[in-house]
Structure formats: structure tokens, C-alpha cells
Specification:
- This protein is an alpha+beta fold.
- The protein folds into three domains: 121 residues, Acyl-CoA dehydrogenase/oxidase, N-terminal domain (Butyryl-Coa Dehydrogenase, subunit A, domain 1), CATH 1.10.540.10; 111 residues, Beta Barrel (Butyryl-CoA Dehydrogenase, subunit A, domain 2), CATH 2.40.110.10; 143 residues, Butyryl-CoA Dehydrogenase, subunit A, domain 3.
- The protein contains twelve helices and eight strands.
- Strands 1, 2, 3, 4, 5, 6, 7 and 8 form an eight-stranded mixed beta sheet that branches.
- Strand 2 and strand 3 form a beta hairpin.
- Helix 4 packs antiparallel against helix 5.
- The longest helix is centred in the middle third of the chain and has 29 residues.
């Protein structure tokens, strides 16, 4: 099938999800550089993903979704990321929420509303947690964003930063504290068409530029009482809500492995086609180059096998700790970064030229270090666990 045919042919939902993701990845790769340059939200990519039945992939079958396994979701994310990783990151947040909301404390009618909107309309949802002063809540502290009790519900005011997908979402789960004498803290479901919500377009990063992760500003945004979907006393919260730690540990590794694979694919084509006059043969024929490409493949292979094994264990109900999840995230993202940097070393000026995609892959893959859980938190936690302190 030619690229032209792939672009024109509708993506049938009768195909298995991975095949659908593979077709979309080819389409997304064609416009990835444009999204990177403009830092605009990939609305068209999300529309195509919805039409292909991938936006609600992890929503349970009883709510109209595909009920995808953890392993299947990880493979779809890795594949989409090979084409355009910002789209894959937006889908990660979608997949985590659609998979875990039904098992939480939300009112049933709100669960059905959010999931049916995702299934039928491709509506996106994400949690807004990070704040200018607080940073990420995973490191502790109460948010400045406040939910004030009113006669009819809650009035929410505050600012969230690094709000992935902000300009393209239908719903946000806003991490806020109540104004009660003894504050509770947790998630408030906010439809983002509610008056008082705006986005401040601050997102201008090195990589992953199309995620639309702008500041989300809430100015007395009013929601009904039952939209306090999960609020608790601060001491009742762990580092993540129930069921989310494994997703946040493994899916980012799948995404950045996909970026590393895209970098490797471009490198292989470059090495096969590059024929220096002093060599008189493609660079791909040089043993030193072959060894270096083998080192890249080693890192990617370890990632794919590690992620697949962990995902299979989770699907089969094998015990899986937050510490293990965090360590997998750190190892796989660092392996992906190492793989792309090795590719850069082999290509010289060609690799850092903006005329070639490798420099974009490098900028994108470096963002793997930013996502929670981060390296220091993960390794300190793992060390304390082993030491029993």
C-alpha cells in the first residue's frame, strides 16, 4: 500500500487496533514537522484517531469502549508516537483516565457521561494538577487552586501549568483544595466550556511542542456539588490515585520508545543512502557503524520487551508495585534518550539539521525526563523500600 493510498483510505474499525495505529502513524508522520514548528494542537490527528476508534480504546466495554488491555494500549501508544509523539501523549492521558475512572469513587452518572462522550464524540479528558508554586503534587503540598462551597455547588479559582491538551479537551479533573476549616483536596470535574475557564497560551517548549500544554486558568468556575468527584483529607491520598501508578510508569516509556524507533528508522535510511567518496560504499557497510546501530537496537529491544512483559503481568493480575512501575519508567525513558543520542553521534551535521527529523526526535525524546515520576523520586523510593527505612 502506498503512502498516498494510506492517506486517502479510511481506517476501518474492523482492523485490529495496532494495525489502525500503524496506518495513522504514517499519516501523522507527514505533518509532524509542521505541528512541531507551529506548536499548534493536533486537532486533525485526534479527529482521525476518533474516527479509527482509538480515542476511547481503554474505556470499558460496558460503557461502550473497546476495553483494550494494558498491553494493547502500550503498543498503540508506541506506534502512534513513531508518527507524532505529542498526539500519543494526549492519548496517554485519555487512556489512563478512561481506564481508571470507572473503578474510582465518581458518581455513576458522571462516569457514564464522560465515557460516552469519549466514545461517541471523541471528547478528551485530562487531570490538571501542576501549579506555579506547588509544582507537581506527587512531591507533596496542597494546591493553591481553591474550590469554594456555594449554595448550588462549588466555585473554583486558580491556575494550572503544563496542562497537557488544555486547548483541545472537553473535560478537566482539576486538583484543588476546599475552603473548609479542615480542607479536603482532590479532583473536581470541570466541563471546559464552563464560563470562567480560559487558556493562557504559554506552552513553548523544546520538544513535544504540539501537546497544547498551556496554563489553565479558572476564575470562579462554577460546577455542581456532585462534580467534586473524589475529594479527601490530604493524609488519605497516596502519590497517585488508585490504579494509575502503573499506567503513568509504563505508557510514557512506550511513547519515548516509539520516538527512538522513529529516530532509528531515519538513521537506517541515512546510513544506507550515504556514500562518502573516500569510502565508495554506503556507511551501512562499515563494521563500526553496524556495531553502533546494534547498540541502538539493543536499547530499543530491551525497552520493548520490558514494557510488554510488565503490561502482560498487569493484565494477568500479577502483583506490580509503584516502585517497579517508576523504575520501568526511568529505565525505558533513559534508554530511549540514549538510543537517539547514539544516532546523533553517527550522523554529524546531518543529525542536527532542521531539514532532517532526527533533531526533532532528539528534542522530543528529552522530554521523557520531565514526566512524573521523575528519576530522583523513583530511586529514593526504591532505595528506601529495599533498606526498610
Amino acid at each position: 500500500m502506498t503512502v498516498q493510498n494510506i492517506r486517502q483510505k479510511p481506517v476501518s474499525e474492523t482492523l485490529d487496533p495496532l494495525r489502525r495505529a500503524s496506518i495513522l502513524a504514517l499519516r501523522f508522520a507527514e505533518t509532524a514537522a509542521s505541528y512541531d514548528e507551529s506548536a499548534s494542537f493536533p486537532f486533525d490527528n485526534i479527529r482521525l484517531a476518533h474516527e479509527a476508534g482509538l480515542v476511547a480504546l481503554t474505556a470499558p466495554v460496558e460503557f461502550g469502549g473497546a476495553g483494550a488491555s494494558f498491553a494493547e494500549a502500550a503498543e498503540v501508544i508506541r506506534t502512534i508516537a513513531r508518527g507524532e509523539p505529542s498526539t500519543a501523549l494526549i492519548l496517554i492521558m485519555q487512556y489512563i483516565n478512561l481506564a481508571t475512572i470507572p473503578g474510582g469513587r465518581w458518581p455513576e452518572h458522571l462516569v457514564r457521561k464522560v465515557l460516552s462522550d469519549a466514545v461517541e464524540n471523541g471528547a478528551l479528558i485530562n487531570a490538571f494538577r501542576v501549579e506555579p508554586e506547588l509544582g507537581t503534587p506527587i512531591r507533596g503540598g496542597l494546591p493553591a487552586t481553591t474550590a469554594r462551597r456555594t449554595e448550588s455547588g462549588w466555585s473554583i479559582s486558580g491556575r494550572k501549568i503544563y496542562s497537557t491538551g488544555a486547548e483541545g479537551l472537553t473535560y478537566a479533573i482539576v486538583w484543588a483544595r476546599t475552603d473548609e476549616d479542615k480542607p479536603r483536596v482532590g479532583g473536581f470535574l470541570v466541563p471546559l466550556n464552563t464560563p470562567g475557564f480560559t487558556t493562557d497560551k504559554t506552552w513553548n517548549p523544546l520538544g513535544m511542542r504540539a501537546t497544547g500544554s498551556h496554563d489553565a486558568v479558572f476564575d470562579n468556575v462554577e460546577v455542581p456539588l456532585d462534580h467534586a468527584v473524589d475529594i479527601r483529607l490530604p493524609e488519605e491520598w497516596g502519590s497517585r490515585g488508585e490504579g494509575q501508578a502503573a499506567w503513568f510508569g509504563i505508557l510514557p516509556g512506550a511513547l519515548y520508545t516509539g520516538v527512538a524507533e522513529a529516530a532509528r528508522d531515519w538513521l537506517v535510511t541515512f546510513l544506507k543512502n550515504r556514500v562518502p567518496t573516500n569510502l565508495g560504499a554506503p556507511l551501512a557497510t562499515v563494521p563500526r557503524i553496524q556495531q553502533a546501530v546494534g547498540e541502538i537496537e539493543e536499547l530499543i529491544t530491551v525497552n520493548r520487551r520490558l514494557i510488554a512483559s510488565a503490561a502482560r503481568d498487569i493484565d494477568e493480575g500479577v502483583s506490580f508495585t509503584q516502585s517497579e512501575s517508576g523504575l520501568i519508567k526511568v529505565v525505558t525513558t533513559e534508554n530511549a534518550i540514549d538510543a537517539v543520542e547514539k544516532a546523533l553521534k553517527l550522523t554529524g551535521n546531518h543529525g542536527i539539521s532542521r531539514n532532517n527529523p532526527l533533531e526533532r526526535h532528539h528534542r522530543d525524546v528529552l522530554c521523557g525526563r520531565i514526566h512524573s515520576p521523575q528519576e530522583d523520586t523513583v530511586r529514593i523510593g526504591a532505595g528506601r523500600l529495599v533498606l526498610g527505612v
